[in-house]
Structure to design on (629 residues):
């Protein structure tokens, strides 16, 4: 049994990583909640953002936490165009057909990255890579704190957008009742595209925040897609608070499983949780009972 | 009168159909004598994918239950038979039974949980992925089966045919998988035209309506998942003894589950011939691209998967029913909707 302070430290760093996971899952949750689209290419978008951060760092020596802002804008635009010009046409298709479409996109993005960058892991070494904050007996990696901070800011901006702006309110109306929104004259195609853009932007921020913490390989995509699904299912599909909460729960349980059981048992815990949640409470922790 | 007319028009189609089936059968049976070993290995891979695709199709294509975790059953079947052989020298003819029982059990377990708790759609797909992932991580920790380092079977003596031990030249494996594909096609065709097929398709189209007609939806969904997983188990045994090396990270991976789905989706979900046509298209275009690039002097990992992705994308967009239905019409197989 590791010392208590060690466990607390692991749990705290799990909270920080979990916040980034939460932001990533938030993107998935928004896309599902509004467009009803099961985005199986989510992890590949995240990996793409990571490569953007790596390339920008290697080329321009720009810190990933600065790249993040530009990446969010670029991914927002990319997401908007992708949804408006392409995915919107298939929104009415049966669920499995949409899933396969997104899986096809995921395969293309993931393996194009493999073609372009090769299978080797890449990473980013910032000057403060090994620094940490001291908090009583606990040590917090600086990069992890910054990553979580960025995720919190991005989440707050998203929440403010959905609560305060007219477009945000219109998107929520769309999510509640797509037909009603259409009848009321809302530009649903545009709103869907904005939503996908926002989802992609969240993923871009999450990806850039994650880069200093891990080695980047082209094969990360499916793992992140599944992780995002685990979190979103845990929190409740379509619930924003739930996504964030789910992210933290998964972050902490992975960190603790890594210390208490074995590092390789990390994802076992999250998939175990996924099975339990799907069977016992399919609407998730925060999801309202629907239908 | 219309029936008569249909028969009259159908007659030449019937003849063409027989000729086509006969031609395919002759080529399939003589292939090891006429094709190079490379072509034979590629066709063997295509047949393997056709077989697992056919097995997956029972669950999704017939009964409408989307599994994205079928690599679980391939892996379980492969490890069960390979483990028996590796540790106790028990050959695949006995091992296949363990594999089938184990996989049918796993399928029944997952199906029972899912269908009793009314998990369906995306959630069901994710549940199947979760179990495959759990198996992947779990098998990484089974040291007796090699753990993450892999389990290796003694490579077969390629010159001697040992039917009992299922070791021999590539042609033997080719005929084995050909027989499996033919058997699966026969079984599925049989079932599809019997009560099971009608019940499954009724459930696929509308579960509530099917239940209201008195179909025991839970039981028939269970039958579909158990049959599908048992069939996939046999593919696992084939995989183990053909490739001789098993790694949890590969055999249980999400990518492998997607690979299983590709054939039937591209060929035509719910059709009988679709999984075979689809697997052929997947392997032909995927490995063909790799081979051409290799000949041109490029070694590009990922090119094959990009082609698979593009193929899947194009088919999903332009031919949502798959390649087979329009192809069948063009070949004069008539507008039979199976």
């Amino acid at each position: 049994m590791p010392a208590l302070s060690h466990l607390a430290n692991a749990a705290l760093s799990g909270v920080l990583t979990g916040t980034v996971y939460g932001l990533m899952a938030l993107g998935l949750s928004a896309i599902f909640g509004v467009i009803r689209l099961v985005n199986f290419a989510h992890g590949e978008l995240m990996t793409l953002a990571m490569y953007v951060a790596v390339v920008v760092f290697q080329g321009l020596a720009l810190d990933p936490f600065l790249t993040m802002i530009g990446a969010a804008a670029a991914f927002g635009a990319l997401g908007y165009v992708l949804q408006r010009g392409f995915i919107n046409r298939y929104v009415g298709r049966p669920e499995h057909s949409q899933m396969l479409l997104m899986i096809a996109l995921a395969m293309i993005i993931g393996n194009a990255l493999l073609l372009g960058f090769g299978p080797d892991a890449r990473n980013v070494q910032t000057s403060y890579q090994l620094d940490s904050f001291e908090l009583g007996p606990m040590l917090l990696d600086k990069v992890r704190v910054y990553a979580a901070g960025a995720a919190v800011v991005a989440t707050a901006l998203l929440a403010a957008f959905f609560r305060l702006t007219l477009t945000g309110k219109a998107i929520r109306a769309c999510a509640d009742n797509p037909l009603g929104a259409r009848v009321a004259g809302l530009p649903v195609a545009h709103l869907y595209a904005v939503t996908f853009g926002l989802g992609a932007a969240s993923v871009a921020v999450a990806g850039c925040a994650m880069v200093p913490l891990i080695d980047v390989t082209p094969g990360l995509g499916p793992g992140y897609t599944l992780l995002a699904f685990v979190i979103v299912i845990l929190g409740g599909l379509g619930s924003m608070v739930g996504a964030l909460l789910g992210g933290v729960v998964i972050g902490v349980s992975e960190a603790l499983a890594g210390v208490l059981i074995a590092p390789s048992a990390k994802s076992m815990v999250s998939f175990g949780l996924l099975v339990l949640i799907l069977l016992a409470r399919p609407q998730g922790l925060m999801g309202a009972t629907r239908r | 009168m219309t029936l008569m007319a249909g028969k009259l028009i159908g007659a030449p189609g019937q003849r063409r159909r027989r000729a086509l089936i006969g031609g395919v059968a002759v080529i399939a049976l003589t292939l090891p004598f006429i094709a190079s070993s490379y072509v034979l290995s590629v066709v063997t891979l295509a047949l393997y994918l056709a077989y697992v695709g056919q097995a997956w199709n029972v669950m999704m294509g017939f009964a409408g239950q989307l599994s994205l975790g079928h690599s679980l059953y391939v892996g379980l079947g492969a490890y069960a038979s390979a483990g028996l052989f590796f540790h106790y020298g028990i050959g695949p003819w006995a091992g296949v039974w363990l594999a089938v029982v184990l996989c049918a059990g796993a399928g029944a377990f997952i199906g029972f949980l899912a269908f009793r708790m009314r998990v369906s759609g995306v959630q069901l797909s994710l549940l199947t992925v979760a179990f495959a992932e759990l198996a992947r991580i779990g098998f990484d920790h089974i040291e007796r089966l090699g753990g993450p380092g892999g389990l290796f079977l003694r490579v077969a003596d390629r010159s001697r045919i040992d039917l009992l031990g299922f070791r021999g030249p590539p042609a033997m494996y080719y005929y084995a998988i050909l027989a499996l594909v033919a058997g699966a096609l026969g079984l599925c065709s049989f079932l599809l035209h019997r009560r099971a097929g009608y019940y499954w398709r009724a459930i696929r189209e509308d579960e509530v309506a099917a239940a209201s007609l008195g179909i025991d939806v839970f039981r028939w969904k269970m039958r579909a998942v158990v049959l599908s997983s048992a069939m996939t188990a046999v593919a696992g045994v084939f995989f183990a003894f053909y490739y001789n090396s098993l790694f949890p990270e590969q055999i249980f991976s999400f990518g492998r589950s997607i690979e299983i789905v590709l054939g039937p989706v591209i060929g035509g979900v719910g059709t009988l011939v679709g999984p075979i046509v689809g697997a052929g298209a997947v392997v032909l275009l995927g490995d063909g691209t790799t081979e051409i690039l290799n000949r041109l002097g490029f070694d590009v990992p990922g090119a094959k998967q990009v082609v698979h992705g593009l193929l899947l994308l194009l088919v999903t967009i332009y031919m949502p029913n798959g390649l087979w239905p329009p192809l069948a019409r063009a070949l004069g197989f008539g507008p039979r909707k199976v």
